[in-house]
Amino acid sequence: MSHRLFSLVGKTAVVTGAGANGGIGHAIALGLAQAGAQLAVSDIDAAGLRRTSEELEALGCEYLEVPGDSAVPAAVEALFAEVDGRFGKLDILVNVPFVFPSRERPHEVSLETWNRMFAVNVTGYFLCVRQALPRMLERGGSIINIGSNAGVSALGRGAFAYSCTKGAIHMMTRELAVEYAGAGIRTNAILPAQTMTPGLQQHLQDPVFRATVLPRIVGGLPKGRLMAPAELVGAAVFLASDAAAGVNGVLLPVDGGNLALNASGTYR
Ligand SMILES: NC(=O)c1ccc[n+]([C@@H]2O[C@H](COP(=O)([O-])OP(=O)(O)OC[C@H]3O[C@@H](n4cnc5c(N)ncnc54)[C@H](O)[C@@H]3O)[C@@H](O)[C@H]2O)c1
């Protein structure tokens, strides 16, 4: 077995949702770059994306920075057109963005919130996949969706709409894996557990969340602490690389043992 199997030298990747400094997409973008990939990074947060690009530049990575809303078809088309113009090919797509504006009980979720969450968390992934697949049909490729432990078992606490979007992403992953296996296009999902990112920090601003929910979260993480974005990177590099040539349709928990722990179990 050679480390070359894990190399991404010569491969071109698109990473959406790469603009949150300290976020999972940001960590994965830098990790793919360190493994040798050339990158197009995108995010609705143009200022955050600029900071990610500066870090890619410091790594000596060949990159393309395309701010935009991944839930808007024209913006997604423009992103992939820029990839064509700059790199002329695509090997890897990593779908990361999500919105989870506030915790709301199922009967309190407005149709507007539900639709926006599905637009970003599901339709945005579909729009990128729809652009990526034709570009991968001739040469194969790797699509990586960021799912969640919330798409596997229920979180409660007003995560209803979010969890539904993640469940949809898990099925999107499996359907794509089956449909395109013969074309050499692998689709897998990484399922993080609660990870310290700007997205989670937003919820930690709420004193009630900190006092009541955070201890429950940590109680479900056998390491006794939140995950760190850096802990997600190795799985992404692996799934993107030829080392994962036979890995397709997998929902890979990268959760420190969260899903392994029975809801009634304890780690001490
Ligand atoms: N952090 C966690 O605890 C955790 C746990 C399980 C799964 N996840 C998943 O991991 C992924 C990343 O989460 P994170 O916590 O790193 O988030 P984050 O908030 O740190 O980063 C998400 C990024 O998505 C971007 N984004 C939002 N809407 C967008 C849009 N319409 N178009 C383009 N970009 C958009 C944001 O600007 C941000 O840069 C998400 O899919 C999330 O569901 C996170």
Describe the structure.
The protein is an alpha/beta fold and 268 residues long. The protein has a single domain (3-251), classed as NAD(P)-binding Rossmann-like Domain (Rossmann fold), CATH 3.40.50.720. It has 8 helices and 7 strands. Strands 3-2-1-4-5-6-7 form a 7-stranded parallel sheet, sandwiched between helices. Helix 1 links the parallel strand 1 and strand 2. Helix 1 (24-34) crosses helix 8 and helix 3 (73-87) runs parallel beside helix 4. The chain is globular. The model has no long low-confidence stretch (mean pLDDT 97). Bound molecules: nicotinamide-adenine-dinucleotide.
Give me a quick take on this structure.
This protein is of the alpha/beta class and 268 residues long. It has eight helices and seven strands. Helices cover 44% and strands 14% of the residues.
Please write out the topology.
Layout: E1 12-16, H1 24-34, E2 38-43, H2 46-58, E3 63-67, H3 73-87, E4 92-95, H4 111-136, E5 141-146, H5 160-180, E6 185-192, H6 198-204, H7 207-219, H8 230-240, E7 251-254
Parallel strand pairs: 1-2, 1-4, 2-3, 4-5, 5-6, 6-7
Bound molecules: nicotinamide-adenine-dinucleotide.
Residues 16-17, 19-20, 23-25, 43-45, 48, 69-71, 96-99, 120, 124, 146, 148, 192, 194-195, 197-200 line the site of nicotinamide-adenine-dinucleotide.
